[in-house]
Task: inverse folding
């Protein structure tokens, strides 16, 4: 029996079509059973369960709630560790005194409802930048550096803030670390005046207004920042300074409370006030 | 005869040994003293080189205003008028007034700078930026405290403002180095405004860049002012 060429090719093509149909059948069945199958004409569905990748650009944090007034006070007992600061004839060390003073100020501030942080709480000496870092990481904080001088009229207290000439260098935009205080100079003076006014009422001979001084610790602090300096380690008896401390603490706490309504905390971190 | 000769030789040698034993410690002491005299410390050598601001006999005697601590208020400065032969060259003039400031007032309690501090060098740039290099004693002997340190710096700045009008702002170095602070408080990494009137008008700021022109070789050799590092 002889099969013609045309019939032979017809049969071969039938067999191949049947094989192709059988091969495609499972995929048709799985598509029909899939609940996410898209209707005809819709775009192709996405591949499921792909991991979400981190974008290569910084994400914008959600806006922080707007708050008014400050809530955190960062206290900075100056010196410490290998740096004793000013030293008196009776072996009085500024680094020890300011630590005791800090506890008094802290107690008075906490009684007023403020949250208090300290740049050091024992005999150690963090760097200027480390101390500023603690304040700069807070939201709605003020910074108070505590000192005892080696000169000056004993029994008086002075408050210092950065001079107005420092404010002139603020250029807006990105805040430079070494000029972090520049946008806050006006606020710092207002803060200093409030605290100095309270201190002047208690300690006769103290000035009525804060003074300006180019203090290294304040320069890198991005918050209303002041330095409070008691006079002095030259006293004959350390008890004279110890007796001043509760009054200084109370006056500072009252000054902070007086300044509180003036400080409208910016809505976004890094925003100039 | 031979025995005598040997005896004399032995006696002579003995005397020589004794003499050497006595003279050697004296010689050693003299060498040490001479070494001390001939080797001054590095700082002494710099002082001898830089302090020699010999007054020119043709310099006019003028009234200068020095700023020391006020006798009435120890937290403030007060001007004191004294007569001094001052050079017309701003660098020499600045050195003369700063050395007078370092020497202190009649009442030593009113001084603002420690008595053992010295001015090692003074530079003035064409844009009015001055660099004053003081010895280490300015940092180590200044009383630690915001008030005392600020008074020290202010006395330098106000004295320069009153007597050397070319100086607009000032950088303070200690033994050629930039320190963080003077004695733990006042910032020495920044400039200090000297010309306060120009600063109020915005002509001088802490932030303005230091303008150091590239001088021609011949001009640089004759220039009174020397570019300083920032």
Result:
């Amino acid at each position: 029996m002889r099969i013609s060429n045309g019939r032979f090719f017809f049969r071969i093509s039938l067999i191949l079509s049947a094989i192709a149909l059988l091969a495609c059948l499972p995929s048709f069945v799985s598509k029909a059973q899939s609940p996410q199958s898209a209707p005809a004409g819709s775009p192709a569905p996405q591949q499921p369960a792909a991991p979400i990748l981190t974008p290569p650009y910084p994400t914008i944090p959600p806006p922080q709630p707007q708050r008014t007034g400050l809530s955190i006070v960062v206290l900075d007992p100056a010196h410490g560790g290998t740096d004793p600061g000013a030293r008196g004839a009776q072996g009085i060390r500024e680094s020890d005194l300011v630590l005791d003073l800090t506890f008094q100020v802290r107690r008075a501030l906490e009684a007023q409802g403020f949250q208090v942080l300290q740049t050091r709480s024992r005999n150690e000496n963090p760097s200027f930048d480390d101390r500023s870092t603690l304040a700069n990481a807070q939201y709605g904080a003020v910074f108070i550096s505590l000192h005892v001088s080696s000169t000056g009229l004993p029994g008086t207290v002075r408050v210092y803030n950065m001079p107005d000439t420092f404010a002139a260098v603020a250029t807006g935009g990105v805040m430079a670390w070494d000029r972090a205080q520049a946008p806050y100079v006006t606020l710092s003076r207002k803060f200093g005046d409030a605290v100095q006014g309270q201190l002047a009422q208690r300690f006769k001979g103290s000035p009525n207004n804060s003074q300006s001084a180019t203090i290294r610790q304040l320069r890198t602090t991005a918050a209303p920042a002041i330095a409070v300096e008691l006079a002095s380690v030259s006293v004959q008896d350390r008890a004279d300074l110890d007796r001043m401390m509760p009054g200084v603490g109370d006056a500072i706490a009252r000054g902070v409370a007086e300044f509180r309504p003036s400080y409208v905390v910016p809505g976004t971190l890094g925003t100039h006030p | 005869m031979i025995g005598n000769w040997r005896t004399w030789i032995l006696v002579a040698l003995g005397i020589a040994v004794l003499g050497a034993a006595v003279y050697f410690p004296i010689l050693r002491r003299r060498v040490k003293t001479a070494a001390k005299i001939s080797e001054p410390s590095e700082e002494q050598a710099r002082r001898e080189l830089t302090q020699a601001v010999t007054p020119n006999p043709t310099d006019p005697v003028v009234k200068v205003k020095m700023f020391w601590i006020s006798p009435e208020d120890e937290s403030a400065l007060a001007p004191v008028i004294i007569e001094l032969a001052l050079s017309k060259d701003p660098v020499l003039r600045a050195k003369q007034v700063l050395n007078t400031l370092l020497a202190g007032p009649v009442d030593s309690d009113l001084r603002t700078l420690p008595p053992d501090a010295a001015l090692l060098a003074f530079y003035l740039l064409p844009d009015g930026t001055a660099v004053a290099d003081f010895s280490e004693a300015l940092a180590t002997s200044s009383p630690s405290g915001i008030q005392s340190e600020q008074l020290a710096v202010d006395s330098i700045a106000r004295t320069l403002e009153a007597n050397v009008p070319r100086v607009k702002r000032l950088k303070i170095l200690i033994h050629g180095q930039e320190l963080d602070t003077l004695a733990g408080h006042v910032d020495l990494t920044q400039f200090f405004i000297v010309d306060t009137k120009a600063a109020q008008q915005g002509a001088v700021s802490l932030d303005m860049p230091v303008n150091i022109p590239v001088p021609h070789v011949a001009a640089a050799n004759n220039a009174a002012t020397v570019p300083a590092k920032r």
